[in-house]
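Deviations from the work plan: none for this task. Representative record:
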Amino acid sequence: MYNWKFDQSKVSDIINKKYKELGSKIDKTIEYEKSNMFFSCKTNNHRYKFEKASEYNFSCSKFGESLNYQDNADIIVDLLNKKVKYKSLNKSQHKYHSYTH
Ligand SMILES: [Zn+2]
C-alpha cells in the first residue's frame, strides 16, 4: 500500500516535470519565432531564416525558386495556444495529485 502511494506520487512528479519541459520548449520556440524573420519557397516549403535567405540571395538552395517572406504570426498563435493547453493539463494534474492524497 505504501509502495503504491509512493509510485503514484513519483509518476505524478514525472508527468509534471514533463509538462514543465514541454512548456519551456514551447517558450523557446515562441522566442525563436518572434526574434527571427523567415522566408520560404512555394515548391517544397523550405524555410530559411533571414540570414540564410540573404546568403542564398533569396532563392531556394535546391530549386533556385525565389523565396517569399513568411508571416509566422499564425505559428506563434498556434504555439501560444499549445502553451495554454499544456498549462491547463499541468493544473489538472495537480488537482488529481492532491485529490488522491
Ligand atoms: Zn525549396
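The chain has one domain: 2-99.
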